Each structure stands twice: as C-alpha cells, then as structure tokens.
Amino acid sequence: MKNFYRQKLQNLQENGLLRNRKTVFGPQGPHLQADGQTLLAFASNDYLGLASHPDLIRAAHEALDRYGLGAGASALISGHSEPVAQLELALASWLGQERVLHFSTGYMANLGAIPALVGEGGAVFSDALNHACLIDGIRLARPSSLTVYPHGDLARLEEGLSRCEAAEKWIITDGVFSMDGDIAPLAELVTLAERHDARVLVDDAHGFGVLGDEGRGTLSHLGLNSPRVVYMATLGKAAGVFGAFIAASAEVIEWLLQRARTYIFTTGTPPVLAAACVASLERIRQDGFRRERLKQLGRQLQEGAQGLPWKLLPSETAIHPLIVGDNFTVTRIAQALQQQGLWVPAIRPPTVPPGSARLRISLSAQHEPAHVERLLAALRSAA
Ligand SMILES: *Cc1c(COP(=O)(O)O)cnc(C)c1O
C-alpha cells in the first residue's frame, strides 16, 4: 500500500504536478506571513478585502456570544439558526429573487443541487472549463446525456441542444471562469435556453460581490433577469467569509430543501459564520469604492504586462491569468517570485488543460498601485 502510493506520488513529482501548501500565520490581507517570510500575495479570492474587516469580526464576536459555536444538527432537524435564516432573507431581497437556500460551501451546493435539479432523463450541457464541483455534481446527477461543449462555443452548444430530445435540458456554467477570469456569455446562453426550452445553472463564485450593480454579480452585470436561470454563488470569496447559496423561484428552492442531499444530510452552518456574512453583505452593497479599486488595479496590471514574454489574458474581473504553458517553467517563475517576496500561485493540470499552466494573479481591493508595480517588476526580472 505504502509503495503503491509512493510510486504514484513520484509520478506526480516527475511531471511537475506535485502540489504543496504554505501555512499562513495571521489574518488575510495583501501581506501574508508564510514560509518564514512576509509575502506580498496575489493568491487570494478575498477580492474585496473583507476577510478581516472589523465589521465582520464584530458581527462574528457578537454572534459567538449569543449563539455559541456549533449548529447542533442538520438544518432540517434542529440546525437552522436565526442568522442563517436572516442571511437567506437578506440575500433573496437584495438579489430580487423569490427565495434563497444557504449551503455550507459552494462545493456542497453544486454536489447537492445538480442531482436534485436534473431530473431522471434530464440532459446536461456543460462548458469545458467549468469548475471541478460542477463537474462532480453533474457526475452525481447521472444525466441521460452529457455534452461538454468547448469553452464558450455557442454554435456547438446550439447544435447539441437542437439534436437533444430529452424532456429536460440544463446548461451549466461558471459565471466568471475561475482559472481564466472571463465572463460567460450568459445573455446568449439564456437566449439559447429560451429557444430550446432549456434551463441555466450559473455558478457565480467569482462574480458575486465583484461584478454588477452594488456587487450583485454577473447576471446584474449583464442586465439579465430570467425565470430560466438558477443562480448559485459562494460566500468564501469576495464576501470574505465561508458558505454558499442558491437563489431561484420559491418552488425550485423548496424542491432543493426537500431533495438536495448535501443540504439535508449535513450539520447546519455555525451561526457565527452566517452572522459575519450578513455584515459582509452590507459592506458589499455600500463599498462601491472596493469594486472601483479592483478595476483600476486591473487596468494597471493589464497595461503593465504588455511587454512580458507571456500572455496575460484580458480580464474585467479580479482574476488575471498569465499563461506560461509548461508545468516546470511556471513553477520556476513562481519560485523566483517568492525569492523576491511575492506569492503568486502556479496553476497546473488537472486544474487547467495540459500545456496551459499559468500564474493565477488575483487582485484585491486592499492592494495598492505600488503592489502591482512591484509584481510587474518581479515578473520582468523573472522573464
Ligand atoms: C471556489 C469555487 C467553488 C467552491 O466554493 P467553496 O465555497 O469554496 O466550496 C464553486 N464554484 C466555483 C466556480 C469556485 O471557484
């Protein structure tokens, strides 16, 4: 057994695919203490810089005193706490959706919701760059047919939809693609869904808080409001806390509450986390300056990266991938950056397609223009 896995690990190492963790000391922020260094980090999904915001911490302290720690049981047994109920109501009213169901994490939301939504005999159409938990949720749903269409390829998607005879069809997509930072063509996807009587599930883990009016996410950014769309987003990224939710019609949400196994058979979320999320929602809505700052930093990075030997993918979001290609080269560059006190994660297969290893530069509203300058200088010297 030991030898079996030692061999497999060695194989990963030989292909430049071994991953490792850094222990972080202290709170999230542009500067992280790790590996005995202070690192200027472009590694986090705390895009708005809310993970250590005093309002959130205060709300968590108060909730801790009032509710203690554990939720006690699953939500349907005795674990549906007042803060989670408040969070669901606040999200639904703010997003203009009939109802919201809170899940422990985004991974759990997709693993539970997709099998519950896609009925027996349902067909699924999935973008090739969808997040791992959408892929796993689709696997668990065991759809009658699965079409993985090339990233953003509407013609291929339509071809599949028009040939499909299933009673129920679902188009499943990231709203903002997690490793590419581009926005899904949701307006076109909704049009195709209308034309072919399909439904759309949007996972907006990276758009919620960052895009749209007051940070309402990718649907708002694109001015979309369709009864065919089920909206999912997470609360551990721009919201700075932990958790996730699905927003939809009252009937869809009631069905998920009855049938999503990762909702039913798991312990309720600690109330303290939901209370912090309620406070985070307030900051997301009111702090437009955080989204402004992200845009400015993004423009600065995009302009500054023009002379580099690698291609920085264009991006309107907080995610700016620098495509390097080779697994070993990307690791070498990440190490060279760390020697200069910078932390930018190297992303390799299977997270991204083979031959497209990249540095995933993620910006936060807490970064300053001087931080971006420092990153650009370090990239130039690593070239
Ligand atoms: C991070 C992520 C998730 C998972 O959310 P967690 O709350 O971290 O489990 C789901 N979908 C996408 C697109 C993500 O990037």
Quick recap of the structure?
Helix content is 43%, strand content 17%.
Offer a few descriptive terms.
383 residues, alpha/beta, Aspartate Aminotransferase, domain 1, Aspartate Aminotransferase, domain 2, 4-stranded antiparallel beta sheet, 15 helices, globular, binds pyridoxal-5'-phosphate
Which kinds of small molecule does this entry bind, naming each only once? pyridoxal-5'-phosphate
Distance between the termini: 42 Å
* Total tally of structural domains: 2
From the alpha carbons, calculate the radius of gyration and give it in angstroms: 21 Å
CATH class label of the largest domain:
Alpha Beta
Helical stretch count? 15
Largest sheet: 7 strands, mixed
SS class? alpha/beta
Q: In order across it, which strands form the biggest sheet?
A: 3-9-8-7-6-4-5
Shape label: globular
The name of the CATH architecture of the largest domain is 3-Layer(aba) Sandwich
Order of helices and strands: HEEHHHEHEHEHEHEHEEHHHHEEHEEEH
Helical residues, percent: 40-55%
